[in-house]
Amino acid sequence: MKIKAVFGLIMGLQCGDSWAQQFSIPAEFVSEVKQAETTGVELFRVFANAKPITSPTELKAQSTAETAPIDRCDTPYRTVVLPPKKAQKSITVYIMGIPSLMAGIMGGRHFRVEVSPDGGSVLSVTPSTQTCLFTKPNAMPNGAKSVGALMTHILSAAPTEFQVFLSLYNKQPLYVGTKAGVWRIENGKVSYVSKPK
Prior knowledge:
The chain has 4 helices and 10 strands. It has helices at about 5-15, 30-50, 55-65, 160-170, and strands at about 75-80, 90-95, 105-110, 110-115, 120-125, 135, 150, 175-180, 180-185, 190-195. The strands form 3 sheets. Strands 1-2-4-5 form a 4-stranded antiparallel sheet, with helices on both faces.
């Protein structure tokens, strides 16, 4: 993504939200975006309504995921097991960083860990970002109102479930810049607001 696109977004955020046009999501990303919305909303729902896991297989999957060799950031983490769907070939476990409120939004690293159906082995680990990424809250001038947080994302051209979760968890819109343009995430929905320059 070029610097010009990032600068335009920052200026737009400073001037208010009315700058952001909405374009149709490019056809090649529609399926990916829908999957990110569905999984991100489900991840937040399970995270927010934390209930003890009663399934022995899911408990085993949780334990297996927590021992996976992942490079965590220096912040507390919480493990979330998504209820398996029928015909699912693995159990999906998320290891989500939960920083203090003073640290701001933690864009990464969070992790998706796919565990075997018996809960005993790690099949894959997918990080949300390559590095630890914190977006600290900026001091706002008197009378000013934040319209959202901004982050860039280089691991995919469209936002992922991690960013959908972060917008819901932090209760604010999240603007995500990728090589495909700028995306806006709010209330579990992804929109496409700026084409690449």
